[in-house]
């Protein structure tokens, strides 16, 4: 082998040095990357720890705010420290399960305060299957809901319940499962997330008073398991149910008489206030309260914004009472409010209290110790239709005066129609003084809205009619009650004009009330009664399905035609909703009162806010009326946007006006 020259040896040595340098550089770089990754991992871990620490701090701060009162109320009911400790532990667990988007929403709503009282709130209630088939179908229809100016959707009962024994979904078999035909919990969470992205809130029914007889607890109780029997009201001795029956009214005396159902296979009676397949829960048992609160928090974590507490006055039972509105009910609702404010403060409790105002208002609680955020304005709804039938606004005005006299912090949900029947729970003491006796007046109202009274344009059917007492409730859509169905059947254009005018006026009156207006799906397009329910053996016995028909998407196409029934109603409601959200006089904290007027068919409502005054006047009669303003002054007609000096306004039959002026 030839000996290498000195120059070659130098080049080889230089290459070796270069290789060593590169190797060292790679090692250093690798070491730096490793160290960087370690630092990043540490930083990420530290950030996660900081985030968790901050999250824990927020929870503990909320818990501390309510702990003493919550513990005191819990121990007063149950005197069980272990169960209270479990409740607190589970609250923390459900809080930790709440995703980042929901926690962010909680924080925003806490900072905003009373977010649900904004004047742009418009609700719509719907059955998922009737409206869009499935939960995913509802998600696909969100653009239409936005077009309706709706930012609050109440999804009627969708939790798993047995077919044919569900009372419209109010007999829940599983609080953590969606009816399979409607979708899944994942679908529900996805719908909620997209709704939140669009500024829409979701409401659901939380059935607290009872479970389905198919619920796991009920099945175990039916097998004689004492632990689960204690979660309901079971009695082997018939004398105890008999004692209850002496003081507890029947909810459905004709279709589901009595408050107990006998189970021959068990030899026991079980309390069933509503229907035999709905077993009343025993809230004297702390296990029932805790588990139902865990269900409540689970559903809140799916993205629900408004939880409607179904049949809340009934949830505490005590022998020797009427088992309605007992003090312990308010204790439970107050605890529920605090649990929500600790775990998920962005949510709102809506109480379903279908009773007279003096029974309803206490469910708001007090300013210091609030209970429900919102309640239904039930009596006003029924009194509205009484006014339509009598053309006499006196009782409605008295009812509104009662509501207006309540603290402005109280938020009512207002509606013309809903999924349920109309019960004529009116102020009969007052009506009697005006010559309207209860039994014949109820018959008059039911005859009128069935279209049996001369001159009536309404159509509908009775529900739960009692042939002995003559008492009954009424079912029908807003459009059918206003005459749109009968006018369409007769192909009478003049009658249709009257019906649409009445329909729009009633909605304007609803928008004028303080609180949140709630549309029933289909009302925005004037959908009429659906008599095909009689062809379904499961629905035929329940006439409430007459106004629970499938949403007619073919009619939606007509809203583009401004001369069509659908176009006229949809366009009018759209106009009213946009005015309402743009005018300060519709603020939740506005001063509201009724004004006396010499004509008993004229309802006059005044709203004051922001240095402005709205005069909203409604003609509940078939005849045109000349309305004299309080004084000749410059008013803006909110419907036309024109301002002028006004002394009188001519209102057509079933017409209305929204006239605004600056206050001096």
Question: Which whole number gives the mean pLDDT?
Answer: 94
Percent of residues in helices comes to 40-55%
Please state roughly what percent of the residues sit in beta strands, choosing from under 5%, 5-15%, 15-25%, 25-35%, 35-45% or over 45%: 15-25%
Q: Please tally the β strands and state the result.
A: 23
Cα shape: globular
How does the helix and strand content classify structurally? Answer: alpha/beta
Sequence stretches where pLDDT stays below 50 over 5 or more residues: none
What does the main sheet amount to? 8 strands, parallel, barrel
Strand order of the largest sheet: 1-2-5-11-12-13-14-17
| Alpha plus pi helix count | 22
Distance between the termini: 117 Å
> What is the radius of gyration computed over CA atoms, rounded to a whole number of angstroms?
31 Å
Please give the structural blueprint.
Blueprint: H1 6-78, H2 81-97, H3 100-112, E1 123-126, H4 128-132, H5 135-140, H6 142-147, E2 152-155, E3 159-160, E4 174-178, H7 185-197, E5 201-207, E6 210-212, H8 216-222, H9 226-229, E7 234-235, H10 239-247, E8 260-263, E9 268-271, E10 278-280, H11 286-300, E11 306-310, H12 327-343, E12 348-351, H13 357-360, E13 374-376, H14 378-390, H15 394-404, E14 411-415, H16 428-433, H17 438-449, E15 461-463, E16 473-475, H18 478-482, H19 484-490, H20 493-512, E17 516-520, H21 553-556, H22 565-582, E18 591-594, E19 602-609, E20 612-619, E21 625-637, E22 642-651, E23 656-662
Parallel strand pairs: 1-2, 1-17, 2-5, 5-11, 11-12, 12-13, 13-14, 14-17
Antiparallel strand pairs: 3-4, 6-10, 7-9, 8-9, 15-16, 18-19, 19-20, 20-23, 21-22, 21-23
Helix pairs in contact: 1-2, 1-12, 2-11, 14-15, 19-20, 20-22
């Amino acid at each position: 082998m030839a000996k290498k020259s000195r120059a070659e040896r130098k080049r080889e040595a230089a290459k070796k040095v270069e290789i060593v340098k590169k190797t060292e550089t790679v090692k250093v770089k690798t070491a730096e990357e490793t160290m960087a990754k370690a630092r990043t991992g540490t930083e990420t871990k530290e950030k996660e720890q900081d985030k968790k620490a901050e999250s824990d701090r927020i929870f503990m701060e909320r818990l501390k705010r309510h702990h003493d009162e919550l513990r005191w109320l819990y121990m007063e009911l149950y005197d069980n420290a272990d169960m209270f400790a479990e409740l607190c532990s589970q609250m923390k667990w459900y809080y930790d399960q709440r995703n980042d988007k929901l926690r962010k929403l909680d924080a925003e709503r806490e900072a905003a305060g009373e977010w649900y009282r904004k004047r742009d709130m418009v609700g719509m209630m719907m059955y998922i299957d009737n409206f869009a088939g499935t939960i995913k179908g509802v998600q696909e229809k969100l653009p239409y809901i936005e077009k309706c100016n709706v930012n609050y959707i109440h999804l009627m009962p969708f939790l798993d319940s047995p077919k044919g024994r569900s009372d419209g979904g109010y007999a829940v078999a599983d609080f953590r499962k969606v009816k399979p035909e409607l979708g899944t919990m994942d679908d529900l969470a996805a719908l909620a997330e997209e709704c939140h992205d669009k500024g829409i809130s979701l409401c659901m029914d939380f059935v607290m008073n009872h479970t389905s007889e198919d619920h796991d607890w009920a099945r175990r109780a039916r097998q004689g398991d004492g632990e689960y029997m204690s979660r309901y009201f079971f009695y082997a001795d018939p004398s105890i149910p008999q004692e209850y029956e002496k003081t507890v009214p029947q909810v459905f005396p004709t279709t589901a008489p009595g408050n107990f159902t006998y189970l021959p296979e068990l030899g026991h009676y079980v309390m069933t206030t509503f229907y035999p397949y709905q077993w009343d829960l025993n809230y004297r048992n702390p296990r029932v309260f805790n588990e139902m609160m865990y269900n409540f928090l689970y559903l809140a974590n799916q993205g629900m914004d408004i939880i409607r507490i179904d049949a809340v006055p009934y949830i505490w039972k005590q022998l020797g009472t009427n088992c309605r509105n007992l003090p312990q009910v308010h204790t439970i609702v107050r605890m529920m409010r605090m649990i929500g404010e600790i775990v998920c403060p962005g949510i709102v409790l809506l109480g379903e209290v279908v009773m007279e105002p003096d029974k309803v208002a206490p469910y708001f609680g007090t300013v210091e110790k609030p209970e429900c955020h919102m309640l239904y304005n039930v009596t006003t709804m029924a009194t509205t239709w009484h006014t339509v039938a009598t053309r006499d606004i006196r009782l409605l005005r008295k009812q509104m005066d009662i509501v207006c006299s309540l603290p402005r912090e109280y938020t009512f949900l207002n509606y013309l129609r809903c999924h349920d029947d109309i019960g004529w729970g009116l102020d009969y003491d007052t009506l009697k003084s005006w010559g309207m006796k209860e039994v014949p007046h109820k018959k008059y109202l039911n005859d009128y809205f069935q279209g049996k009274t001369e001159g009536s344009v309404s159509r509908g059917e009775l529900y739960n009619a009692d042939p002995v007492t003559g008492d009954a409730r009424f079912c029908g859509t807003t459009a059918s009650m206003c005459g749109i169905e009968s006018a369409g059947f007769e192909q009478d254009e003049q009658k249709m004009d009257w019906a649409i005018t009445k329909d729009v006026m009633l909605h304007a009156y609803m928008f004028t009330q303080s609180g949140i207006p709630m549309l029933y799906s289909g009302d925005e397009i004037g959908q009429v009664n659906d008599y095909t329910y009689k062809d379904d053996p499961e629905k035929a016995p329940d006439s409430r399905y007459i106004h629970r028909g499938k949403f007619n998407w073919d009619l939606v196409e007509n809203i583009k035609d401004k001369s069509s029934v659908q176009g006229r109603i949809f366009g009018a409601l759209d106009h009213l909703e946009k005015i309402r959200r743009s005018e300060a006089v519709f603020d939740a904290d506005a001063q509201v009162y009724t004004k006396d007027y010499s004509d008993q068919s004229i309802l006059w409502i005044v709203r004051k806010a922001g240095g402005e005054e709205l005069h909203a006047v409604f003609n509940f009669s078939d005849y045109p009326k000349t309305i004299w303003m309080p004084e000749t002054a410059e008013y803006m007609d909110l419907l036309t946007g024109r301002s002028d000096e006004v002394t009188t306004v001519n209102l057509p039959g079933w017409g209305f006006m929204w006239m605004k002026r600056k206050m001096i």
